[in-house]
Design goal:
The protein has 15 helices and 22 strands. It has 626 residues and is of the alpha/beta class. The strands form seven sheets. Strands 8-7-9-10-20-19-17 form a seven-stranded mixed β-sheet, with helices on both faces. The chain has a four-stranded mixed β-sheet with strand order 2-1-5-6, covered by helices on one side.
Length: 626
C-alpha cells in the first residue's frame, strides 16, 4: 500500500512539473503584455493618455536609452532608478504595436556612442574627477524624418513626472506642429523689470515650460488685436490691462478663440511694488466677465482652514508655525473628477484667490473645476492688503457651509461687452477688424481666480544643474495650466499622463492631532499675550498717576501687578507645556501602535498561517497512511 502511494506521488509530482512548464510556455506567448500593478495609484501602469498616444502613432519612432552601465552600476540608488526607467520604456514598446523601437546604448568613454550622446545634447555628469569618468543617463527620440528630441538626464527628483516626460517626447515627435499660444500679462513674467529694464531677472519658470510645450507668442500688454494664428490666448492678471487690450480679448473670444484667464483680486506678486497689492477695481473687466455670465468679487478672498498652508509667523512669545487661511493647498477632493483637466491632478497651491460666482441670468454654462471645502469662508480684501495676522484671521473665520469656486469653465453663446471699438491709444496706428456684436459660436473660456499660482515660489524649486535651470515641481500648478491649454487647443492625450499624483502620502490622523493641539496652544498663547498687554497698560497707568513719574522704582501697587502677571504667566506656560506634551504623547502612542502592528502582528499572522498549513498537511498525511 505504501509503495503504491509513493508511486502515485511521483507521478503526481511529474504531472505538476509538466503542467508548470506548459503554463510558463503559454504565458510567454499569450500573456506577454499582462501586468499586475498592486500600487495604490497604479504607478507602474501606463495611463490611458499614454496608451492613446502609442496606439495613434502613424509613423515609426526610435527611442535610444543612454545609460553608462559600468559607471552607473557602482551607484546603487541611481541604478535602481535606471531599472525603473528601462522597465517603463519597455512598457511603451510593448503597447506601441511595433511602431516604437527601443534601443539601449552604453556610451563607453571615447566611443562613437559617447560622441552621439554629446551630439544629441545629453548631459554628462562627472562621477570621479580623478579618473574622468562620466555618467550618461538620458533618452533620445528620433522620427523617420530626421526630427529628434532629448531628455538630457533623468533626474530622480522628477520620478513622479517620468511618464509625462517620456510621453511628451513621443507626442512631440509624432505631432511636431505645436499649439500657438499667445501670452498676455500685466505682470513681468518674462523677467524684464518694468521699473528698471537694465536690471532683468530670470523669467518665471512657467514661461520656460510653455516655451518647451507650445509655440509661445508673447504679446505686448498694450495690444489692440490678437494675431489670427493664435489658437489659445493665456491672459495673466487682466486687472492691469487697459480698455483697448480688454476689447481685443473680447473680440478674440467672439471670433472663436480659446481663452485661459488668470484673474486675481489681490496679487501677492505686486505686494512688494504697492502695499495694496493690486490697482483699483477695473470696471471694464468686471463688465466683460459679467457679459460671459460670471462675477469675480473684487473684495472677497477665499480662506479655508482645512486647506490652509502652514507658514512661520514671527512676533509674540515665540516664532510659530500656523495655518494662513488665504494660502491654500488644494487636493484631489477639491477638483472636479468629471473634468479631464482636473481629474488626476496633484496638489495645487493658491495664494489669495478670489471667488467666482455664476450670474442668474447667464446664457453660458458654468462648470466648476476647482473649489474649496465647505469649511471655507470669505475674507475681506482690506484685511489682507496691508498684511494680516494669521491667528486673528483664524479666530475671526466663519465657515460659509458650501464650497467656493476658484476656477471654472464657461461655454455657450454670449455677446460683446462693448457697444463699439474704443479709440486706439495715443500714438498707435492701424485699423481693427470689424466689430463683432455676438459670438460666432459657443465660447470656450476657463477662468482661474488667482494669478499668483504661476509664480515660481508657489509651485517649483529652481536649481542650477551644471549651468542649466532645473525645475523640480513641488505642486501641480503648471500641470493644471498646461492641461487646460492642451484641451483648449484640441490635444488632450497628455492630460491623464501628466498628473500621476505623488508617491508621498500624508499621515492625516497625525496632521489632525497636530492641528487640534496647535489650536489649543494658540488660544492659550493669545490669552497670555492679552494678559501681558493688560498688565503693561495697568503699569503705565499706575506710573502716570505717581507724583514722581520719572522714578524707575516700582510702587507697592506696581510690584503687586507685576507679581500677579508673573504668576499668571508661569501658570499659562505650564498649560502650554501640557498641551505640547499631550500632542507628543498622542503621536508617540500612535507610532508605538503602528510599530507593534508592523513588528509583531504581521509576523505572528504569517506564523499562524504557516502553522495552520502544517496542521492540514499533517492530518492529510495521517489519512493517507491509514
Amino acid at each position: 500500500m505504501k509503495q503504491l502511494f509513493r508511486l502515485e506521488n511521483r507521478r503526481g509530482l511529474i504531472a505538476v512539473i509538466l503542467l508548470f512548464i506548459l503554463i510558463n510556455l503559454l504565458a510567454a506567448v499569450s500573456l506577454r503584455t499582462a501586468r499586475l500593478d498592486l500600487t495604490e495609484q497604479k504607478l507602474h501602469t501606463l495611463t490611458e493618455g499614454t496608451r492613446n498616444i502609442l496606439h495613434n502613432l502613424d509613423k515609426p519612432l526610435t527611442l535610444q536609452f543612454y545609460w553608462s552601465k559600468q559607471v552607473g552600476n557602482d551607484l546603487p540608488g541611481l541604478k535602481i532608478y535606471a531599472d525603473r526607467v528601462l522597465d517603463l520604456l519597455n512598457e511603451y514598446a510593448l503597447h506601441a504595436d511595433g511602431k516604437l523601437i527601443l534601443e539601449t546604448v552604453d556610451p563607453e568613454p571615447f566611443s562613437d556612442a559617447e560622441d552621439d550622446a554629446v551630439k544629441y545634447g545629453l548631459q554628462g555628469v562627472p562621477v570621479d574627477g580623478r579618473s574622468g569618468q562620466t555618467l550618461y543617463f538620458g533618452l533620445v527620440g528620433k522620427s523617420d524624418d530626421g526630427t529628434s528630441k532629448t531628455i538630457p538626464f533623468f533626474q530622480p527628483e522628477r520620478e513622479s513626472f517620468l511618464e509625462y516626460d517620456v510621453s511628451e517626447l513621443v507626442t512631440t515627435l509624432a505631432t511636431p506642429q505645436k499649439i500657438v499660444l499667445g501670452l498676455l500679462s500685466a505682470l513681468d513674467m518674462d523677467g524684464r523689470n518694468g521699473a528698471n529694464p537694465f536690471a532683468p531677472s530670470e523669467p518665471w519658470m512657467i514661461v520656460d515650460q510653455l516655451q518647451q510645450r507650445f509655440d509661445l507668442r508673447p504679446l505686448d500688454r498694450e495690444s489692440v488685436s490678437i494675431p489670427d494664428e493664435v489658437t489659445v490666448l493665456m491672459v495673466v492678471y487682466p486687472e492691469g490691462l487697459d480698455d483697448s487690450t480688454l476689447y481685443a480679448i473680447d473680440q478674440f473670444v467672439l471670433r472663436g478663440g480659446r481663452l485661459l484667464l488668470f484673474a486675481d483680486p489681490l496679487s501677492e506678486t505686486l505686494r512688494g511694488q504697492a502695499p495694496q497689492g493690486a490697482p483699483e477695481e477695473n470696471p471694464t473687466l468686471v463688465r466683460l466677465l459679467k457679459t460671459w455670465g460670471v462675477e469675480l468679487h473684487p473684495d472677497a478672498i477665499a480662506g479655508d482652514p482645512q486647506l490652509a498652508q502652514r507658514v512661520q509667523v514671527s512676533g509674540g512669545l515665540r516664532p510659530q508655525v500656523m495655518e494662513y487661511l488665504p494660502w491654500m493647498a488644494l487636493q484631489q477632493e477639491q477638483f472636479n473628477p468629471d473634468e479631464v483637466v482636473t481629474s488626476q491632478l496633484g496638489q495645487i497651491n493658491l495664494a489669495c484667490a478670489g471667488v467666482l460666482t455664476p450670474l442668474d441670468d447667464a446664457k453660458t454654462d458654468f462648470v466648476p473645476l476647482i473649489s474649496t471645502s465647505e469649511a471655507a469662508g470669505i475674507i475681506s480684501r482690506p484685511l489682507l492688503s496691508y498684511g494680516a495676522n494669521p491667528a486673528q484671521l483664524l479666530a475671526d473665520h466663519h465657515p460659509g457651509g458650501k464650497p467656493l469656486t476658484l476656477a471654472a469653465r464657461l461655454s455657450g453663446p454670449t455677446e460683446s461687452a462693448f457697444d463699439a471699438a474704443p479709440a486706439l491709444p495715443e500714438g498707435v496706428e492701424g485699423q481693427r477688424d470689424a466689430h463683432l456684436v455676438k459670438a460666432q459660436d459657443d465660447i470656450q473660456v476657463v477662468i482661474v481666480s488667482d494669478a499668483d499660482l504661476l509664480e515660481d515660489r508657489f509651485w517649483v524649486q529652481v536649481n542650477n544643474f551644471f549651468g542649466q535651470r532645473l525645475a523640480v515641481p513641488t505642486a501641480a500648478n503648471a500641470d493644471f495650466a498646461i492641461n487646460v491649454i492642451e484641451q483648449l487647443g484640441g490635444n488632450s492625450d497628455l492630460i491623464s499622463v501628466r498628473s500621476r499624483g505623488s508617491a508621498a502620502r500624508p499621515f492625516e490622523l497625525v496632521s489632525e492631532i497636530r492641528r487640534r493641539a496647535e489650536q489649543q496652544y494658540r488660544v492659550k498663547e493669545q490669552e497670555l499675550t492679552r494678559n501681558l498687554q493688560q498688565t503693561e497698560a495697568k503699569l503705565n497707568e499706575l506710573q502716570r498717576q505717581r507724583q514722581d513719574a520719572a522714578s524707575a522704582t516700582l510702587t507697592p501697587e506696581q510690584e503687586k501687578e507685576v507679581q500677579k502677571f508673573v504668576d499668571e504667566k508661569v501658570k499659562t506656560r505650564k498649560k502650554l507645556r501640557e498641551v505640547q506634551y499631550g500632542l507628543r504623547h498622542e503621536i508617540d502612542d500612535l507610532n508605538a501602535m503602528l510599530k507593534l502592528f508592523n513588528i509583531a502582528f504581521m509576523p505572528m499572522f504569517i506564523s499562524l498561517v504557516a502553522f495552520v498549513a502544517w496542521l492540514i498537511r499533517r492530518s492529510r498525511g495521517r489519512s493517507f497512511s491509514l
